Amino acid sequence: MRLSNATLGALPDSIKRPTYDRSALTPGIVHIGLGNFHRAHQSWYLHRLMEQGLAHDWAILGAGVRPYDKTQREKLLAQDCLTTLIELDPSGKSAEVVGSMIGYVPIEDSNGPLIAQMADPAIRIVALTVTEGGYYIDPVTKGFDATHPDIRHDAANPDSPRTAFGAMVAALKLRRDRGVGPFTGQSCDNLQGNGAILRQTVVSLARLSDPDLADWIDANCTFPNSMVDCIVPATGPKELALAAEFGIDDQVPVTHENFRQWVIEDDFCAGRPDWDRAGATFSDRVHDYETMKIRILNAGHQVIANPGEVLSVETISGCMAHPRIGALFDKVEREEIAPHVHPVPGMTPEAYVDLIHKRFSNPAIVDTTRRVAFDGSSRHTGFVLPILRDGLAKDTPVEGLTLVEAIWARMCEGTREDGTAIAPNDPFWDELSVAAKAARDRPRAWLEQSQLYGELKDAPRFAAAFERWLTMIWAEGLETTLRTYLGRAPG
């Protein structure tokens, strides 16, 4: 049955569906980046509130700024912006239709409709999931990258911006000039200090064209930090077929694990939904929660996805079942990552490693190594290298993390050990591939990518270990190299 408002009542009884009157919902949030994660996570929390009779004036309007977002918009509007969420658990599967999104802003090159929507006084939160690499951050300094062509365009053309951040600046200018007041900018991406980074991007971009507006944004808008967590695979033919098994014709279903977490700084300048009533946590310790998650889960993903690609293991659960990749995860996590993580209420780093091991091993979640290995230039610099720097500074073990970097270099050479090609999987794949090929004979060529490694290339303990591991990978193969590392005593 084709998913729509008209067919909700005819869905099979086993499928949960909105019990609230969707026609009575009014918008309060514009969300830029309507990928799977948002619809399985933030949208679900709001849906749960609406089921309690709350937050009916906080419905979501979807938005995008790239041409490829147009296809997603068409698919969602064709089914009244409803999404089927399919929970995948080893004990069984269940489906639920989420209805907290009620519209999708038209997508135009100049972003006029988006600017107008965000300038509407009814919109009190502008949220984003635009990936870790989408915030125009210099990977070495972590400052704002004012040299990017998109940013230069928006600084020169503030009324017809190309980026989501330029559109936010333009909308905030209208709100200030009209006396409407600010909105909260809410990043929902896997970035440590994601709210602070969003503030940096928006304020810095505004300052390039209108310093007074930048000061107004900085003084009046809030950008709460948050930690988001739920494993959400990409949607493909298997997921479409799974929705059909439930009796639903949904063109954009979402599968997800039986776990969600959302920890949010309570810093909203124009009000907010009571997400805590749906299971979210408001806390002033977001940094500790996000450090635990980013270092153990997100860095852990890179620990296993890169060797998975090189050894032709297609899924994350398959990586965990692989005797040496799974053992690599456990050894690196317990010896080199967990020691740099603080406990949070109700969870020690060691217990969180156990939890992530279980979640990654769930065979019902068909999460591909390719998806997880995507955009390593952002994920290694954001998730792995900060731990490695801590280890070097504190003189703790870094052999495993260094091996992880060598495996990434091996992966970016572009072939697996079985001879098959690895398709480009990074915005900077061409540059990475050139460096990886050069590093086959001269390993330090990989570390000379200053935009990635900065001063690390001159850290003797790291550079020497990297050269040793990458040389061994090419000479003896990854399996033998992993056995060698796994046989080493801690320290």
Automatic annotation (TrEMBL):
Gene3D superfamilies: N-(1-d-carboxylethyl)-l-norvaline Dehydrogenase, domain 2, NAD(P)-binding Rossmann-like Domain. Residues 28-276 form the Mannitol dehydrogenase N-terminal domain. Keywords: Oxidoreductase. It holds the Pfam family Mannitol_dh_C. It comes from the Bacteria. Residues 286-473 form the Mannitol dehydrogenase C-terminal domain. One of its GO terms (molecular function) is oxidoreductase activity, acting on the CH-OH group of donors, NAD or NADP as acceptor. SUPFAM superfamilies: 6-phosphogluconate dehydrogenase C-terminal domain-like (SSF48179), NAD(P)-binding Rossmann-fold domains (SSF51735). This is Mannitol 2-dehydrogenase. It comes from Rhodovulum marinum.
